[in-house]
Structure formats: C-alpha cells, structure tokens
Automatic annotation (TrEMBL):
The chain crosses the membrane at residues 12-36. Belongs to the peptidase S11 family. Keywords: Carboxypeptidase, Cell shape, Cell wall biogenesis/degradation, Hydrolase, Membrane, Peptidoglycan synthesis, Protease, Signal, Transmembrane, Transmembrane helix. This is D-alanyl-D-alanine carboxypeptidase. Pfam families: Peptidase_S11. Residues 94-323 form the Peptidase S11 D-alanyl-D-alanine carboxypeptidase A N-terminal domain. The active site is at S119, K122, S176.
Length: 341
C-alpha cells in the first residue's frame, strides 16, 4: 500500500515538474517575441540635447565625430559607402540608403554636404503642426499666406477662406502647398518668423546640425539648407506621428473650403509623389510607406522615402539635387532595388 502511494506521489511530482518546464518555455518564448517586436518598431529614439550640440560645434564634424555619442538606435555613416550596382547620375546628387532595423548604411554619397532641400522642408513644418497644433482649429487664410514667388505650388485657396488645421496639414503633406505651409506657420508660431525659429530649434534638438531654415515651405533662399543625413533624422522623427504617416501615403486629397460669404468650394489635390500617383513604379517586392518630394531650380529634384522589403524590413532612401524628376526616380529605383538583394 505504501509502495502504491509512493508511486502516485512520484507521478504527481513528475507532472508538476513537466508543467513548470512548459510554463517556463512558454514565458521565455513570449519574452523573445516581445524583444523582437520592440526591436522592429520604427520609432528610433535618441538621447540628445541641444546644449551638447552647441558646445560641440556644428556641421559635418559634429555629424561624423559626435553622432555615435548622441545616437541610440540611429543610423550613422562616417563617410562614403559604395554599392557596386549604384551610381547616381548627377554630379551634385547626394543620397543615402539606410537599413532602419540594423542601423546599417548601405549607401552614402555626400550625406553631410549642404544642399538646398526645396519642399523636403515641409517635413519639419508637418512635425511642428502635429506637435503644437490642434487639428480641429479653424484658420482664416490671410493675404500674407500668398506672398510667394510666382509659379509657387498653391492649393487654390484665397484670402478669407476658412479651413481647419487638419485640412491645411493634408494640403501641406499630400500636395506640398506653399500657402498651406504659410498658414500653418502663422497659426502655430503667431508669426512666420517665430515659426521658423521653432523649426531651427526642433532641428537642433534632433541633431540636424547641418541644417538652417529660413521659411516653412522650402522656396529658394541661399541661407536655407540641409544635408541628406539631416533629412534622414527629420523624416525618422516625422514617422513617429500617425497623422504624418497616414497623410504621406495618400495619392490624392479633396480640400473643402468655406469661402468668406459662406459658400463652399472643393479642390482636388494630387500627391506630388509619382510613386503614389502611379506615374512611376517601384521595384518588385518593395512596399512604399511614404515620403516627401521637393523641387526648385536651385535644389533640383529631391525625394525622401521609407520603404519595406519583401520581409517587412524598413529602409530609408534619400536623394537630393537630382538634375530632374526623371533622373530622380531612376536613381531612387537603383537604391530601392538593393533592399531585397
């Protein structure tokens, strides 16, 4: 009888031990999955203070020597990185291709050289709009919002029109409307000049030490410049905000405006990104998550995008100062073809 009881006790003990081992294995598996998921998130944080940057100096010297000190999970390249199958066509083109999962620089050409960003500037305007704006607020368009050089990209609005911040934000991000950039700057900063100060403060906080903004839209000014690496830092920050990531993937936006007399009018605003409009096709097995274009005579054609390869790994590609849009998309496809190789 005692022998039978002993066997029962041993059997029960074995079942308890097996159950404990299974629980440990399951918990460990869950822990590993959570670690992988956290590592794959696109929110690449940094520990950086503007004061440290000011004390350390600005420009490419800071980017090269100080970036590892302030970057946590950020991509850093100390110079040119060559890909055998990639050669940018323009003599002045700057470009990069970064693996956002591993922080690896797959390609880098002139990424710390100053360049004119054109409407790539509007990424920073969008960041401040999301951080400090209230999307439900109504904004009355002012004459000063249209004080732009002839031929500027504008939405079709007029002084006295009433729109929301959300509508201005979409006109800015989707259509790259310069009048929307001016109205957002005035609404957020009180004055456009103060908003530009906020842009430069935000740039410094992000480690964008090769950047200086003069306006919220990117129309040419000799003192308005950035670098391809700083564009990476800026777009990386913008993708933290769902409002930006949602808008940047839209191929078209209907802007509905209330006129001063109470009547309403609607404008169709097509994306400036030719990938989104279907005018250009990305390489096979490349999923475009969105980005921003920019074009002026002085800046050439510019594009900064985030894309995923066939396995869902995120990459960022930036090209500045291509000679024209045709070359821009040809060179961008050269970069994007590398993410599945």
């Amino acid at each position: 009888m005692k022998s039978t009881d002993n066997r029962k006790n041993i059997h029960i003990l074995n079942r308890v031990l097996i159950g404990t081992v299974i629980c440990i294995v399951v918990l460990f598996a869950i822990f590993v999955i959570l670690l992988i998921k956290q590592d794959r998130e696109m929110d690449l944080s940094q520990s950086y203070s503007p004061q440290a940057a000011e004390n350390s100096g600005k420009g490419s010297e800071f980017s090269l020597q100080k970036a590892p000190a302030f970057a946590s999970g950020l991509c850093v390249s100390e110079g040119a990185v060559v890909l055998p199958d990639v050669m940018l066509q323009g003599n002045t083109e700057k470009g990069l291709l970064f693996n956002l999962d591993t922080g690896e620089a797959l390609f880098a050409q002139g990424i710390y050289d100053q360049a004119y960003p054109a409407s790539i500037t509007k990424i920073m305007t969008a960041i401040l709009a999301v951080k400090y704006g209230t999307m439900e607020d109504q904004v009355v368009m002012a004459e000063g919002d249209f004080a732009l050089e002839e031929g500027s990209q504008v939405s079709g609005m007029a002084a006295g029109d009433i729109v929301t911040m959300d509508q201005l934000f979409h006109a800015l991000v989707v259509y790259s409307a310069n009048d929307a950039a001016m109205a957002i700057a005035r609404q957020i900063g009180g004055t456009v000049d103060h908003f530009v100060e906020m842009m430069n403060e935000e740039a410094l906080a992000l480690g964008m030490t090769g950047t200086h903004f003069i306006n919220p839209h990117g129309l040419h000014d000799g003192s308005h410049y950035t670098t391809a690496y700083d564009v990476y830092l800026m777009l990386n920050e913008a993708f933290r905000y769902s409002a930006f990531t949602d808008a940047i993937q839209m191929n078209m936006y209907h802007l509905k405006v209330t006129r001063g007399d109470g009547s309403q009018v609607s404008f169709r605003l097509d994306s400036t990104d030719k990938y989104l409009t279907g005018e250009k096709t990305a390489p096979k097995n490349v999923n475009l998550l969105g980005g921003k274009t920019g074009t002026t005579s002085e800046a050439g054609a510019c594009l900064a995008i985030i894309a995923q390869n066939a396995y869902g790994v995120p990459y960022m590609a930036v090209i500045l100062n291509a000679d024209n849009r045709s070359i821009l998309y040809e060179d961008m496809n050269k970069l994007l073809m590398q993410i599945n190789s």
